[in-house]
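User: Need the bound-state model for zinc ion:
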Amino acid sequence: MHNEDGISLRDIRIGACTSLLSVCQDGYFLSKTPVPGFDNSEVLARINECQPLTSIDGSFKSEILNTVFNIGLNKTDDRPLWIVPNSIRHRRYDLLKKRGKQLMALELEPPGSALHRQFASLIKKDARDILKFANKYGLLKRHPVHNLVFRNRNTGQQLQLGESLLWWKEEIRVLAKCLQLWDMVLGGDKELKNTVLWHRDGITIRLGNSDVPFISRANMNLLDRWSNGDAKGPALYYLSLEADRRLLNALTPKLLPSQNSEIYLFPDNLLATIWLMFLLEISGRTRFIQCHSCGEYFDARDPRARFCSTRCRMRNYRKRRTRKSKGRKKVKEDERV
Ligand SMILES: [Zn+2]
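Assistant: Bound-state model below.
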């Protein structure tokens, strides 16, 4: 289908990026500086040399400033920490499921398939669990400056730049709130009416204890899209904008001649992969629910599905059977008395 705005994406497949995702082979650790043993001004100078962080007019534009130096973030940690690679050895990894030689679109290998849910669940965990996630999947974004090698003058050890833990926490919080809102939309939650607030001057989204002005006087014309008081429409629009922000300039289309010349979209970094998974969910292409046995999120295409695997279904069945037979035994003992 063609329209004035562009061509349909119907024939374009989505591949979770593979060649671009990498993880440090020797894992990560929490450091007190972006590069262990180097102070911030030294690191800033080295980065600036390789990639200028300020525009000609003197304004800061670079993303590196908030992802690495916490500039522009809500500072809550008094002693900020960084997730830093243990060595400069990185290996590429693949989240895509392969059937034979065929790459399958959208079919991620579990637990990668619930990557966004896993990432958001870190909101209830501490720094150690965040580090565990990094050890498995790597840094959220690897800017070209992450390839810079810093050599420790005393030990000769080769080191590379990390990412701010504070920034990770902010990203986790944003996604967790988006998923909370999405779950409300999905579940037809009555609470949604108290989250998407219509007022005279527009719409405000209230998540947790923060109010985000969403539609204001400046873009009031957007209100015509929905009937007054509708919560679902504005909520979905809000979520799509949050995803857009993370996917901007982060998806690369590639023609894969080996895959029937299909066009695949590849996210350029881990954060974009996570948000792409989120986008697939809110577009209705995937449906993640918690397994009734192990509690992990899984993609349940069948609306009746309750378990992530046959193993979990059997485990649940055995548990119920034991409970039943114990109950029966108890009755017999009671009868004897
Ligand atoms: Zn399970």
